[in-house]
């Protein structure tokens, strides 16, 4: 029996596992890195043990020692990090601890996507053809892609999450894509082996949740639609898929069960497929709990973490497989900008309201580090119908207040509101095809509300004549205007419709409709609801000016590679250098044709967001 569990993970998934442990009466231990010393999951655990530097979640010895020091008798790996490393599972078991996961042999069998495809083909699970690219020298093993139809997809043999994955549009792009994918895979997983397979464009990404016990029972718990992705990482997931028929569901579930039985699987796992028309192709098997497991939990009325723990204790799965009811949708809230670049910093306010489930790794005051994935939370809705689930989730995103960091909240909300999503017309190229807007300019009322609130706050903090209205002058020459980076508004005299204006709440009425705006003030900006407005100073300080053509770092990171030299001619879109942030490569390209007049960094340089990396002078050499 498990009495004290160490979670070898962080953030949202650690808190999720702790929640079930509290309900089961199991004590919890958080192993934490130096970067996470003040994180919410650390304070929520009954005990916490320091592991070491920010990447200590990949240190097998440190985690096993932490479990032993804390008196834990079991280890749950969560997802990511070491969750799919057979050597970690073996080390936990050899230490006499209970491993909450599949047998090491099953993890190893699926640890290489190349070997996994071979095993699945032998088990009668449909797969796509593929060619392996050796990590050591980049040689393509087993043939060539010359007779294949483009586009192709390059994928890392180890790991997932979109790292080490590249789309190749033409034969001329193949070598660069292979080299880039190999580097990123090596950095993220310690294994630069990749493989190439045909890309099924406009295919759906469908996965099946499986659950197996040590007594030979395997459940297939329906399917999840995970087609909406950016940078090959999922953004929206739902259960069931709006496109899967009962016949297709039976095919997918049968294939998933065959996959589990072929490797002697035990515990929770996921078998992923690409589906396009009549084509069903095995993608990979994740030998762990998935990020999107909550949608299956809500539709099937299960706690998958609880079942993981009971299976690890040797219990059989309880009775018959449950039947699905209703519809669930999950969105992943990331700290990132409209170009999908990760953001770091402080979450000043985190508040999500509405009839939804929120699995979060942060709270108000949390710090988002550059060391880890920028996902802040998962927001999940459940409804008796798909339409009801969409409505609940859309409303929750509308009412959410996340201050301090740029997030993808607007993008998520606009996806849910789009006609294509509501019609269920989704596929892996959804965001590229529909160009869903990730930005929402402030409305005139929001700008006015911000201006009025700032004026009211100034008056409330005044040391003399506090009773005078904001912006009052005994000789009025022209209206008072508040200017923000995003817009401006005339606030004195206030236009008709302003019912009440205080520092933290402004009420306005238009055509008989009254609306209340909640205001939050910070050092450099003000939020109206979740809309950020940045006041422009009346007397701005001299600002540092960058030379025309300066390429600025879009985020903090390290320079992985510089591909040009000073004096070199470059074409528009040519890669100038590559940054690495959060274990992913980010290419910095020339905005126009010209000449490299200066290179300000070198390989290995650590740069802050906004740093000048290079300067491109437009024109010919």
Automatic annotation (TrEMBL):
<dbReference type="InterPro" id="IPR000089">
    <property type="entry name" value="Biotin_lipoyl"/>
</dbReference>
<dbReference type="InterPro" id="IPR016185">
    <property type="entry name" value="PreATP-grasp_dom_sf"/>
</dbReference>
<feature type="domain" description="ATP-grasp">
    <location>
        <begin position="117"/>
        <end position="313"/>
    </location>
</feature>
<dbReference type="Pfam" id="PF00289">
    <property type="entry name" value="Biotin_carb_N"/>
</dbReference>
<protein>
    <submittedName>
        <fullName>Propionyl-CoA carboxylase alpha chain</fullName>
        <ecNumber>6.4.1.3</ecNumber>
    </submittedName>
</protein>
<dbReference type="Pfam" id="PF00364">
    <property type="entry name" value="Biotin_lipoyl"/>
</dbReference>
<dbReference type="InterPro" id="IPR011761">
    <property type="entry name" value="ATP-grasp"/>
</dbReference>
<dbReference type="GO" id="GO:0004658">
    <property type="term" value="F:propionyl-CoA carboxylase activity"/>
</dbReference>
<feature type="domain" description="Biotin carboxylation">
    <location>
        <begin position="1"/>
        <end position="436"/>
    </location>
</feature>
<keyword id="KW-0092">Biotin</keyword>
<dbReference type="InterPro" id="IPR001882">
    <property type="entry name" value="Biotin_BS"/>
</dbReference>
<dbReference type="InterPro" id="IPR011053">
    <property type="entry name" value="Single_hybrid_motif"/>
</dbReference>
<dbReference type="Pfam" id="PF02786">
    <property type="entry name" value="CPSase_L_D2"/>
</dbReference>
<keyword id="KW-0547">Nucleotide-binding</keyword>
<dbReference type="InterPro" id="IPR011764">
    <property type="entry name" value="Biotin_carboxylation_dom"/>
</dbReference>
<dbReference type="InterPro" id="IPR005482">
    <property type="entry name" value="Biotin_COase_C"/>
</dbReference>
<dbReference type="InterPro" id="IPR005479">
    <property type="entry name" value="CPAse_ATP-bd"/>
</dbReference>
<dbReference type="Pfam" id="PF02785">
    <property type="entry name" value="Biotin_carb_C"/>
</dbReference>
<keyword id="KW-0436">Ligase</keyword>
<keyword id="KW-0067">ATP-binding</keyword>
<feature type="domain" description="Lipoyl-binding">
    <location>
        <begin position="542"/>
        <end position="617"/>
    </location>
</feature>
<dbReference type="InterPro" id="IPR050856">
    <property type="entry name" value="Biotin_carboxylase_complex"/>
</dbReference>
<dbReference type="InterPro" id="IPR011054">
    <property type="entry name" value="Rudment_hybrid_motif"/>
</dbReference>
<dbReference type="InterPro" id="IPR005481">
    <property type="entry name" value="BC-like_N"/>
</dbReference>
């Amino acid at each position: 029996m498990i009495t004290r569990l160490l979670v070898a993970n962080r953030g949202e998934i650690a808190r999720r596992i702790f929640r079930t442990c509290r309900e089961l009466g199991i004590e919890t231990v958080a192993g934490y890195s130096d970067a996470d010393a003040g994180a919410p999951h650390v304070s929520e655990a009954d005990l916490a043990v320091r592991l070491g530097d920010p990447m200590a979640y990949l240190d097998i010895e440190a985690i096993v020692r932490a479990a032993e020091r804390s008196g834990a008798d079991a280890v749950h790996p969560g997802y990511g990090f070491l969750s799919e490393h057979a050597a970690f599972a073996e080390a936990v078991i050899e230490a006499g601890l209970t491993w909450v996961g599949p047998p090491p042999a099953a993890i190893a069998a699926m640890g290489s996507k190349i070997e996994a495809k071979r095993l699945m083909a032998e088990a009668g699970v449909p797969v796509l053809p593929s060619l392996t690219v050796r990590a050591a020298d980049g040689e393509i093993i087993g043939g060539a892609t010359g007779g294949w139809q483009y586009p192709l997809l390059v994928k890392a043999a180890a790991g997932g999450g979109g790292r080490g994955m590249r789309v190749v549009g033409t034969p001329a792009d193949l070598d660069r894509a292979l080299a880039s994918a190999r580097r990123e895979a090596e950095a993220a997983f310690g294994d630069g082996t990749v493989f190439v397979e045909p890309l099924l464009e406009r295919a759906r990404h469908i996965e099946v949740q499986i659950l197996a016990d040590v007594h030979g029972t395997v459940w297939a718990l329906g399917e999840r639609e995970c087609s909406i992705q950016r940078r090959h990482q999922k953004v929206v997931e739902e259960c069931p898929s709006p496109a899967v028929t009962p016949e297709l569901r039976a095919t997918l579930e049968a294939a998933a069960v065959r996959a589990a039985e072929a490797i002697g699987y035990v515990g929770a796992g996921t078998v992923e497929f690409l589906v396009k028309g009549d084509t069903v192709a095995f993608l990979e098997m994740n030998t762990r709990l998935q990020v999107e497991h909550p949608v299956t939990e809500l539709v099937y009325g299960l706690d998958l973490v609880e079942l993981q723990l009971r299976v690890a204790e040797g219990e059989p799965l309880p009775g018959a497989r449950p039947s699905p009811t209703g519809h669930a949708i999950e969105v992943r809230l990331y700290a990132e900008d409209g170009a999908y670049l990760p953001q770091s910093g402080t979450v000043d306010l985190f508040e999500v309201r509405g009839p939804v489930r929120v699995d979060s790794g942060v709270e108000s005051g949390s710090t988002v580090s550059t060391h880890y994935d920028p996902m802040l939370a998962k927001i999940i809705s459940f409804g008796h119908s798909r339409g009801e689930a969409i409505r609940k989730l859309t409303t929750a995103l509308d009412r959410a207040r996340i201050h301090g960091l740029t997030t993808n909240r607007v993008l998520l909300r606009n996806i849910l509101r789009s006609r294509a999503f509501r019609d269920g017309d989704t596929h892996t190229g959804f965001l590229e095809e529909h160009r869903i807007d990730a930005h929402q300019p402030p409305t005139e009322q929001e700008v006015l509300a911000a201006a009025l609130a700032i004026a009211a706050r100034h008056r409330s903090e005044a040391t003399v004549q506090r009773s005078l209205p904001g912006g009052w002058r005994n000789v009025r020459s022209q209206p008072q205007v508040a200017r923000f980076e995003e817009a401006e508004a005339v606030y004195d005299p206030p236009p008709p419709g302003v019912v009440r204006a205080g520092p933290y709440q402004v009420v306005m009425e238009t055509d008989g409709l009254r609306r209340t705006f909640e205001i939050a003030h910070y050092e450099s900006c003000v939020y109206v609801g979740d809309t950020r407005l940045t006041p422009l100073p009346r007397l701005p300080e001299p600002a540092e000016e960058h030379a025309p053509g300066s390429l600025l770092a879009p985020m903090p990171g390290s320079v992985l590679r510089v591909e040009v030299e000073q004096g070199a001619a470059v074409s528009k879109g040519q890669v100038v250098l590559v940054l690495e942030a959060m274990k992913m490569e980010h290419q910095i390209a020339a905005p126009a044709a010209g000449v490299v007049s200066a290179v300000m960094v070198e390989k290995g340089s650590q740069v802050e967001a906004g740093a000048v990396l290079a300067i491109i002078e437009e024109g010919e050499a």
